[in-house]
Every structure is written in structure tokens, then in C-alpha cells.
Write a structure and sequence with these properties.
With 153 residues, the protein is mainly α. The chain is built from five helices and no strands. Helix 1 (2-17) packs across helix 4 and helix 3 (39-72) runs antiparallel to helix 4. It is flat and about 55 Å long. The N and C termini lie far apart (51 Å). 14% of the residues are buried.
Length: 153
Amino acid sequence: MTLIRNLAVALIALTFAGFAAAQQQDQVSQLAQMVGLSDEQQSEIRGIIEETQAELQELQAEAREIQQQLQAQIGPDYDEDTIREDAARLGELNGEMTALSTLMQARIDSVFTEEQRATLEERMKQMQQQQRQMQQQMQQRQMQQQQQGGGMQ
């Protein structure tokens, strides 16, 4: 179940990064190919992402503004009360963004059939295994390069 959520987290990451709707739709299309989503399911997932994205972008804009205000308070003439108020508001915004992201994940997960969840979980396991293998290969190459470089000195 957590592997399914990892894919939803990837979709959320795209949302947080502010990618264009076309790129998000491409991600949904890739997901559709991976697990066999119907057109209706794709449309529902796109709607969930678009709806959540609008809310998240508003919250992110406010969070950026507060972060700038906090940075502006750094200096000898700081106002502790203002810093604490801004920090508390930033915490509230982060909590709301986390809640929206989690709700989006749950809503996306509810669109899948049990068979699609099983397919997605299996694909995610395969992808994680491939990623681990690639990391191991890279580490082996780095060790070989270090050993070769060490012998030349």
C-alpha cells in the first residue's frame, strides 16, 4: 500500500514543483499505461490533481511570503513577537499543505481497483529493485576509480 502512495507522492511532487498541466497529464498517462486506467479514472485523477494544485499553490505563495518576512527580521532590530507569529503561521501552512497532500493521495488511491493497486505495487517493486541495482553499480564504479586513482599517486 505504501508503494502505491509513493507514486501518488511523485504526482504531488510534480504539483509542488509547479509543473505545467500538460506534464502532469503526461504523468497520469504513464500511470494509465502502467496499470490500465480507464479514461474515466484518468479524468478523475487529473481532476483531483488540478483541484489540489490550485489550493497548494495559494498556500505555497503565502508560505514563501512569510519566509521572506522571517528573513527580513534577521538583524539587530528584530521583533521577537513578529518572528514567533510568522513562524507559527508558517507551521500552520505546512500542516495544511501536508493535509492536502495526504488527502490527495487518499483520493487518488481510491480511484484504483484492487487489481490496479496490485499491478502498481509490483511495478513499483521492480522499479525500486532496478534503482538499487543502478546505485550498486555506480558505487562499484566509484570504488574501482578510487582504487585506480590511488595506485597512480
